[in-house]
Amino acid sequence: MREQTIKRSAVPLLLALLVPVLAACGGAAPAEPQVIRETVVVVETAAPIRETVVVVETAAPAPTAEPAQATDTSFTTPHPILGDLRVRQAIAYCTNRPELIKSVYGFLSDEQQQTLLMDTFLPQGHWALAPQESLTTYPFDAEKGNALLTEAGWLGEPGAVRANEAGSPLFLEFTTTNAQFRQTWASVLEQQLLNNCGIQISRKHAPASWWFGDTTGLSRRDFELGAFAWVGQIDPGGVSLYACNQIPFPSNNWEGQNSMGWCNEAASKAIIAANNTLNREERIKQYAIVQQEFTKDMVSLPLFNRLEAAAATNNLENFRPDSTEYVTANAAEWKLKDGGTSLVMGFTQEPASLFGLVESAAVTAMIGEFLGQSATSYSYDYQPVLLKSLPTIDNGEATNAEVEVKAGDKVWNTAGEAVELAPGVEVATSTGETVVYESGTLKLNQLTTNFSWIDGITWQDGEPLKKADMELAYAIDCNPDSGATSLVVCNSFQNVSFTSDTAYTITYLPGAQWPEYFAIGIGAYPSHLVLSDGRKLADVPAAEWATLPEIAEKPLSIGPYVIDSWEKGQRMVLKANPNYVKGEPAVKEITIKFIADSQQAVSQLLTGDVDILDATTLGAGAEVETVLKAAAEGKVQATVVASATWEHVDFNLFVR
Known about the structure:
eleven-stranded mixed sheet, globular, 16 helices
């Protein structure tokens, strides 16, 4: 499950989570999400009002002093070229990354291009990004790169291929996808390395199906230099990517995503520590260690964030594109300068269903934000909307108590499973130590969170939110018959207690420690709703929910807008919700036009037939250049942001 990308939560009305998935394509990242292997599981509720159910990656067992080794000694021999730190650092210094950015985004200003540059595995603006002065950075410096290569025994002059004393050339195979986007910047990189420092690379542009296949390419470490993109996330995660015990070998059935073979003990311990504490300040400290070691060892060269852009009519106020949130998140704040009350938004994709539990399209998520959301996820973090606050240990709405467990007690093991404690079960203790249970008692941490909705929330029909609505959401979203792709979060709950019509408490199994615990919650469904067939929604079996028009096509809203009509293949019309708890929005009608061709969507923006185009519609190709030129001429407003998707080149430190 490597191919497609996710930039935000792909179901409506949830807090957003960016998950680290591979971006297989070139210019425009695919709109659909999938997670990769064990790294991150995202479990999402599907109510017309709900909170996030997010599972970040389970902390891996503490690494041993040495990484797992294949019995056939595969990938234990240092690469004769890349095994030398000086060569890896030289490649970084010899790479003119601003020039790579210009090769694919030449229509951006120099300032806009600069915002895309990355120095570590976290983008600019991320809450866990280490201070630049603490990192080893690699600005373009061919002189420094050449000096390192000479020191490493690779002799020669720029423009000609260097060689060692044995006469072997400084030659490396560079593997990536065959997308035109990557062919463009990779061809520039090829010339840079040769002309600047005498490094010759042979480019292999493989089909994404091979490069990201389960038994080929990257997953089998079949590369020397390998380029692809990760899609970032609000929570950095990273255990599967950077821990010593996550290096894939034939002997461990290729488990793990540390395809570089990087085992830095300090970084490995820090990445695990960062994912075994709920204290954000401590997490920032540990992630800083990982980034410092990551940049010092130069095992992966971050290149740049991919471009993302959104455009709108100049008549629109409060248009707020963001790297980690959809433009629809603040729709309740939109206003038209001329006093108008209606606007049109263009989508190149139409949702198959509005039941977010089974439909993960970005367009489903955006429509869901019109219908109500518990929180937003601007700037790589979370902000409450219909919640009074996000429950944290710091504000007292969450606790993480040390409890004693014994054989037979249900706990959460290090593999991310709910199990009975018994000999042989591996758990993380309250001190963060990973142990295999033998007998007696152990002390584990037990997390409890208290959520409270703001007062006065009602459904669009005026019915107030009540306890039964939340109970119904819990019953459906944690039911295996509902169609949910994973129930791992639900399985980590020990108890959910609904204490009032606006509040509830989640108590987790001992050992369950989700770093984004404050973003995991229970939503609500309108339990009072009577269906067209006469049944009450609360009485319908979970297995039938995906086929209910009242769920899949016209769910009740608790947000700023309600669905008025949906003409399949043509348009959807939303009307302002007079019962929205935060007040009826100024724009009274929003029409979503389904325009399959993005160039046609841009044309309609420029003619005034469409007022808003979001990033998923514009992509990152010629359409972006068109709207930016139009914006420069004052015809529209357009915003360029650094996407959470980032291009990089990995170094395989070992040979077969």
